[in-house]
Amino acid sequence: MTRIIGLTGGIGSGKSTVANYIASKGIPVYIADEEAKKIMERTDVKHNIQNLFPQSVLNDDNTLNRNKIAEFVFSNPEKLKQLNAIVHPAVKNDFSNWMKEHKDASFIIKEVAILFETGGHKDCDKVILITAPEEVRIERAMKRDNSTKESVLARIKNQLPEADKIKLSDFVVENTNLETTLLKIDEILKILAKT
Known about the structure:
This protein is an alpha/beta fold. The protein has helices spanning 15-24, 32-40, 43-50, 66-74, 77-101, 134-145, 149-157, 162-168, 178-194; strands at residues 3-8, 29-31, 107-111, 126-131, 171-174. It has two domains: 1-28 and 104-195, Rossmann fold; 32-101. A five-stranded parallel beta sheet has the order 2-3-1-4-5, with helices on both faces.
């Protein structure tokens, strides 16, 4: 039975860098946010998303305007919940199909930004949390997304507090120095390979 190892961390923690590093080791990694973006562009899902909003959230080329959606949902928890109710079941279904393709792996990594917020950690055998001081995370996210401090803080506010995530995790890796972080990840992978 393939074990599911959750990989999570708040915005700007560096979990994507860690996920890419793990994938480079030949370990199957499912990046939920990337898959969700693809799924959201499916005609049926896109139609349901558009119906949530009073005005069009589509670009001229008929793709979803993520910035417009983000503006709507981050200031409206009810809309965010409704959006998640459309996207999460579709992603869950996609993940179970992906799992069938990797049924021979001893474990896989499921990278999810909001693993605890959605209750997804309950489906994981172990959870790796990537952390970093809030100021570092804000700086990274602002640089990466070319966004304001206020918009990054609004996104952080929608995520579970770091202290709560730490309590729920099996492995916690502080990512302030990438070299040290990757060494810790190697140690964790060794532990997972043995169990």
